[in-house]
Every structure is written in structure tokens, then in C-alpha cells.
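lol forgot to send this yesterday, sorry. C-alpha cells for the thing we talked abt
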């Protein structure tokens, strides 16, 4: 994990050559004191390069000078200005920090500075750098050693105490994001319900309360929908409840995650191509756990409960069949017409149980629930479904503030009728049209009158391309968004 510290801008003429990245907001860059110091140290080469390349400081723009002076191994400029010339945002600077840390090459230590017009975002720049320097290398026995990689970054700021105090929370959140990415990246032979549970239990160390419901406990409670999914697997299911108590006697906020550690589709088996990606089908649960760890580490002043349903959806002689009818925890019966629509079956029991037992102020579930949401929104926005406008807009705004997009999808009675069954209370699939909405309507039948939202993160959890703050692979999408959302519910002392 990239080591972050804050300090003043270093002198450029003594000791070993330094690598420096400077985040610029465009207007005024040439007048900026740090820019001038770098220009001077490079005998004007930096200014000439800026003019030659037409570097304006626009978001996404970079300029790299390699060894422009004896005292400088690298100078990297990264822009963060919006096209319309508006003031810099935390998200833009965070992205620039990520781009800077990715661009700095072949050095173990570097300095990251900001021009004075964006200097207030030093901690955000550090966060972007931390987030992008993630590598899941547990299973590579030969690490590439011919190339130094960035280990420590000093973020130069004139107000070190302010940056350090802001960093406390961002550091906690970045560790939560890394936990989420680690869990998602693990293959399904390593991470299955039992081992996932062990990873969650390890979080007692940072102060979280952890309670485990094993198969017998769930049988006792009548989790027929979840257990039907689990019955084809040799790996027994778990439901795990995690609590962070930071808000006195208040009713908790509840976050519920789909934790299908592998989704083969079951008897309604998936095609071979791309099935490996279904190790990520526990992305909702991983996000909830990463969030809970972030809240515990930053000692959030609020009561929060995370509940994850962990199962493996497999094919075997004991697997659930298409046409089977199961009785859910809520008492409602479900005709399972497609065993690959399993996430909603898992969530049905976990949602209804969470509402009954904890009477939360609100419930938000996260799930890699449908391929249809990927078709609708691609990988840039997750689907947002809710029975409450205030909750929907609170989540939407939180996403905007951290650069994790949500897009609200419609719901309604006419959709809900499409999952009525001829012989049970409902069926687990409707037609193909609008099937991300039908999945949400299914969940809605298990939340009663609770204030509830559902985030379909099937498109945003795993990406085949890098972003400014994440390498390709598991993104950790949702941890920062929900952390921001929770922050707006904290009681301020
Ligand atoms: N886990 C999948 C959804 C998914 C698809 C997640 C692509 C990530 C990437 C889910 O369990 C599933 O199989 N959904 C089916 C539902 C269908 C059978 C109604 C789907 O979307 O095709
Ligand atoms: Mn499935
Ligand atoms: Zn699934």
C-alpha cells in the first residue's frame, strides 16, 4: 500500500535527484510558486515544454519530463481543470492524484505538489494516488523486480495539519476500498462462504461486532429462498451480521450485500465464456464489508449494520431445479423458474430478516444482480432503485460528491405484476424486457414498508479497463459512495 505523508515542498538542489508531480488547475499555473521553482530548476525547460505541448491543465492532460536536471529525475504535470473553467472539485483533484501516481515511473519515492488554486485538496490528491496504486499480486510467484515502483509519496502542502486531519478519514476509506477489491479479486476456490466469514470475523480486531448465522440457524429461521440456492454446493452458506456502534441509541442504517461467491447459474447453467468472472458475484457483500471496515477505522458517529448473504450457486445432484417452489423467511412462496436468478432469492431472506430484527432507519442493498443493468448503463453508473425519493436523491448526491455514478431507474405496479406466478406467490423471473427492474420489483416484495434502495452494481464492480483511481479489475465501487452517504447521517458532537 502506498505510504502517504504530508510535508513542505523540498529544496531541489541537494541530495539525490527527486521525482516531482504537480497538479495544475490551468489558469495561473505559470505564475504559481511551485511551478516557477520547477521551471527554474530545469533552466526553463518546463516552461518551454508547456508551451510546446500546449499543456493547459485540463483534467486528464499530462506532461512528462524525464531527468530535466541533475536534481530532478522526473517532472510530471497533471491537469484537473473542467472544460467550462469552473472551480476545481475534490473529485477532479483526486483523479489527478491518481493519474500523477500512475504516471510517476521507475521511482520508489516522489513528491506530489498542487498549484495554489487547488492546494486545499492535498488529502484528496493523496487519496487518488493511494487508490490507483493497488495490485492484487498474491498469486504471482515471480514479481517483476527490474523496475522500481512507487512506495512512498510526500504530498507537499503549506497546511500540513489540515491535510493530515482530512487524511485520517480518507486513509480509512482507502483501506476499506482495498479490502473490497481484495475480496472480489480472490478466486472462488479460496473465497467461499466459510472463508469469507473468517475474513469478516478478523474485523473484530478493528472494533466491529460480528455475528454468524450458519446453515442450521438459517434453517431454524426459515431462510428457504437462500438455502434453496445454496443446496447444490458442497460449501455451506452463511449469513453474517456486522455492527458498528457509534450513534448511541439511534435506529441503525442497514446495508445488505449479495454474496454469491461463485455463480455458475446452477441447473440453468451459464455459458462457459466469461463464467470465471462470476467469482465477482459477491461484489455487493464485499462492498458492504469494505464500508463497515472504513466506518470502524474512522470511528463514524452513527449506528450501522451490514448483513451479507454468502452462498455458492452450483450444479449438482442436490441442486435446486427450475420449477421448484421455496418458502422464504417472510412466508411468501417463490416459484424458481430460473436457477440463475439466484441473487434475488438470497437477498429476499436477508432483506426481510434485517427489517424484522433490526428495524433500521433505512435499508440499502447492493448486488451484482442483473446482466440487464450492464446493458442499460454500462460500467460507468450503477442502477438505483428505491421506494423513497429522499433516500434516492441522498444516494445520488453522495455518488456525485465522490465520483461514483448512480442512475435512477423506474419502478411500478405494472412491472411488479409481471412476476406474479400461477402456482406460488411469485416467480423469480419475468420476461427479458426490463429485467433489471423486474429484479428490483422482486426485492421490493421483501422490504415491506421499510425505506429502501437497491443498487445494481453488476456493471461497476469489475472493469476490464483502468480508471484514474483504479487499475483494471475490482473497482471497490460503492464503498466511497456509501461512506459519503453515511457521513450525512452522523450525529455531530
Ligand atoms: N450474477 C448475475 C448477474 C451478472 C451478470 C453480474 C453479469 C455481473 C455481470 C445474476 O445472478 C444473473 O445471472 N442474472 C441473470 C438473471 C436472469 C436469469 C433473469 C441475468 O442477468 O442474465
Ligand atoms: Mn445468476
Ligand atoms: Zn448472480
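and heres what i got for the seq, position by position
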Amino acid at each position: 500500500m502506498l505510504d502517504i505523508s504530508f510535508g513542505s515542498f523540498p529544496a531541489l538542489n541537494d541530495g539525490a535527484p527527486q521525482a516531482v508531480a504537480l497538479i495544475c488547475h490551468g489558469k495561473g499555473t505559470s505564475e504559481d510558486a511551485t511551478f516557477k521553482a520547477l521551471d527554474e530548476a530545469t533552466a526553463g525547460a518546463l516552461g518551454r515544454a508547456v508551451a510546446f505541448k500546449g499543456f493547459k491543465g485540463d483534467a486528464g492532460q499530462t506532461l512528462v519530463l524525464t531527468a530535466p536536471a541533475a536534481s530532478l529525475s522526473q517532472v510530471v504535470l497533471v491537469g484537473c481543470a473542467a472544460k467550462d473553467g469552473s472551480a476545481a472539485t475534490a473529485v477532479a483533484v483526486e483523479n489527478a492524484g491518481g493519474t500523477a501516481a500512475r504516471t510517476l515511473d521507475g521511482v520508489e519515492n516522489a513528491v506530489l505538489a498542487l498549484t495554489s488554486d487547488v492546494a486545499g485538496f492535498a488529502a484528496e490528491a493523496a487519496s487518488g494516488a493511494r487508490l490507483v496504486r493497488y495490485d492484487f499480486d498474491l498469486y504471482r510467484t515471480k514479481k517483476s523486480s527490474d523496475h522500481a515502483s512507487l512506495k512512498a509519496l510526500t504530498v507537499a502542502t503549506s497546511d500540513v495539519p489540515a491535510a493530515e486531519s482530512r487524511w485520517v478519514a480518507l486513509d480509512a476509506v482507502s483501506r476499506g476500498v482495498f479490502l473490497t477489491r481484495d475480496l472480489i479479486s480472490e478466486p472462488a476456490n479460496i473465497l467461499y462462504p466459510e472463508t469469507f466469514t473468517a475474513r469478516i470475523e478478523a474485523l473484530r480486531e478493528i472494533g466491529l461486532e460480528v455475528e454468524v448465522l450458519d446453515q442450521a440457524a438459517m434453517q431454524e429461521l426459515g431462510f428457504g429462498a437462500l438455502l434453496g440456492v445454496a443446496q447444490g454446493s458442497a460449501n455451506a452458506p452463511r449469513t453474517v451480521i456486522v455492527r458498528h456502534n457509534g450513534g448511541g441509541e439511534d435506529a441503525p442504517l442497514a446495508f445488505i450485500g449479495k454474496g454469491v461467491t461463485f455463480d455458475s447459474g446452477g441447473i440453468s447453467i451459464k455459458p462457459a465464456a466469461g463464467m470465471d468472472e462470476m467469482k465477482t458475484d459477491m461484489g455487493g457483500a464485499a462492498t458492504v464489508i469494505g464500508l463497515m471496515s472504513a466506518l470502524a477505522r474512522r470511528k463514524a458517529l452513527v449506528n450501522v449494520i451490514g448483513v451479507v448473504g454468502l452462498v455458492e450457486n452450483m450444479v449438482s445432484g442436490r441442486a435446486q431445479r427450475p420449477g421448484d417452489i421455496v418458502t422464504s423467511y417472510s412466508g411468501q412462496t417463490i416459484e424458481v423458474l430460473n436457477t440463475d436468478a439466484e441473487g434475488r432469492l438470497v437477498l429476499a431472506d436477508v432483506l426481510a430478516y434485517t427489517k424484522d430484527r433490526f428495524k433500521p432507519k433505512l435499508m440499502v442493498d447492493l448486488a451484482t444482480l442483473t446482466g440487464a443493468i450492464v446493458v442499460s448503463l454500462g460500467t460507468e453508473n450503477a442502477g438505483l432503485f428505491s421506494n423513497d425519493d429522499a433516500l434516492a436523491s441522498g444516494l445520488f448526491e453522495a455518488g456525485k460528491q465522490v465520483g461514483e455514478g448512480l442512475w435512477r431507474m423506474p419502478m411500478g405496479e405494472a412491472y411488479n405484476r409481471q412476476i406474479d406466478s400461477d402456482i406460488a406467490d411469485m416467480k423469480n423471473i419475468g420476461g427479458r424486457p426490463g429485467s433489471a427492474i423486474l429484479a428490483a420489483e422482486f426485492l421490493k416484495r421483501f422490504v415491506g414498508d421499510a425505506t429502501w434502495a437497491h443498487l445494481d452494481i453488476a456493471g461497476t464492480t469489475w472493469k476490464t479497463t483502468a480508471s484514474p483511481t483504479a487499475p483494471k479489475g475490482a473497482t471497490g465501487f460503492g464503498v466511497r459512495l456509501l461512506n459519503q452517504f453515511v457521513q450525512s447521517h452522523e450525529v455531530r458532537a
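Residues 260, 263, 281, 342-343 surround zinc ion (ligand 3) (CB under 6 Å). anyway ping me if u want another try
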